[in-house]
TrEMBL record:
The lineage of its organism: Eukaryota, Viridiplantae, Streptophyta, Embryophyta, Tracheophyta. InterPro entries: CASP/CASPL, CASP_dom, CASPL. Residues 28-79, 80-109 form the Casparian strip membrane protein domain. It is found in: Cell membrane. Homodimer and heterodimers. This is CASP-like protein. The keyword Zinc does not apply. It is a multi-pass membrane protein. It holds the Pfam family CASP_dom. NCBIfam families: A_tha_TIGR01569.
Length: 125
């Protein structure tokens, strides 16, 4: 259709993909890495919570009838004398320390996921 010497075309659309094929592969790889890291972070968080919540150790004192017991629910009282308690209750402190390390690793993964999501959003715009 022409109007005042200018040709106008109506109804044509581009058949070109919205995302280049190479960029689509990168987006798919980022999505797979995102799902994998989320899965690892969830497992790490749940594992750490279970390890901390089920931690207990009994230490015999003088006889088998008198015993000291360390549980997760007693943890606030342990924070003041953490090193002296850990000298007595080795496996308790190892499990609590492992749980804290697992929680920290899951937190780092979640920060990586936030960064990855920010880059993915920035690439779209």
């Amino acid at each position: 259709m022409t109007k005042d010497g200018v040709t106008m075309e109506h109804g044509e659309s581009s058949k070109a993909p919205l995302v280049a094929p190479a960029a689509a592969g990168v987006n798919r790889a980022v999505a797979v890495v995102d799902v994998f890291l989320r899965f690892i972070a969830i497992i790490g968080t749940i594992g750490s919570a279970i390890a901390m919540g089920t931690t207990n150790e009994t230490l015999p004192f003088f006889t088998q009838f008198i015993q000291f017991e360390a549980k997760y629910s007693d943890l606030p009282s342990f924070t003041a004398n953490w090193f002296s308690i850990c000298q007595q209750f080795d496996s308790f402190c190892e499990r609590i320390s492992g749980s804290l390390i697992g929680s920290f690793a899951a937190m780092v993964l979640l920060v990586v996921l936030i960064t990855l999501s920010a880059f993915a959003l920035a690439r779209r715009h």
